[in-house]
Amino acid sequence: MTKHEAQMTKDRSALRHSELGIGDSFVIGGSLVGHSSLTVSESFARCRKITTQAKSSFPLAFRLLPPRKRRAMDALYAFMRVTDDLADEPGELATKQQNLTAWRSNLLAAIDGEFTHPVFPALADTIHRFDIPTQYLLDVIDGVSSDLEPTRFHTFTDLYPYCYRVASAVGLACIRIWGLQPGVTFPHTLQSAEAAGIAFQLTNIMRDVAEDLRGGRVYLPLDELQRFGCPPESWAKEATRPEFLAMMQFQTQRARGFYQMAEPLNAMLSAEGRGIFRVMCGTYRRLLDEIERSNFDVLGHRVRVAKWRKGLILVCGWAAKWGWV
Q: What is the set of domains in the chain, with CATH numbers?
């Protein structure tokens, strides 16, 4: 890396830290130091800023929620965003591991009222107000931490816990905010909500196979790649294209099975929860459709859902909220 490139990387990291509220007074790595003097209201405002700056269409779906729940989703989303960025930013592996370990400790301290980052006052308020089990957020940190090193999974049984931590745990935390229909309890939702997260993450894995491989990560189970005769080093070879297509079709059918398992969650959620879930599920299912429609052309480009299609899915979310569909 040239001196100019190194400075650009440093500048980008500094800008991200500025956007996320990570400054000299909020040391993430090492021991717990510093203290956030933000009020809860100011913290929610900071979380909202992080959410609006994110390059994601999902925060638009937060508008389906009433203001109190929308603010809570901002806090949860901001926490997830900072967690991801601590893993994704440039730096040494040991530093990232230290940062995420400290971030985990900081989360636990925040539950007890000790805030070391601007998102924590709002997050702690959200956790207490909506009775979100802290373990869900710890699971997310553990899942992100496992991505720091080159990753391979030998079987789907090995892959499943990873999908749970980085996706299902997020959804289980979200539905605490969204709320449920009268007479439904959160234990009733566990199986369907967990399945939704697995479906979403399997879809992400299929979309990102090329990018992940460049980073030394292979999430598709190795025993299945062997069974279909398409190890990662053969994916770009025309001679093994039929084997790759058969393997990806198998992965698609598995993901569709988890989407089907997630469907009962619709009837359990509150009206606004049903709306936002319809948006999220609709977007990911459409992405899976697009991957299949491209004949699994995921090695040369990133498959996306068209903006107009996302807009239509958002409209369907509003219709679901009001009981029109």
A: 13-132 (1.10.600.10), 150-325 (1.10.600.10)
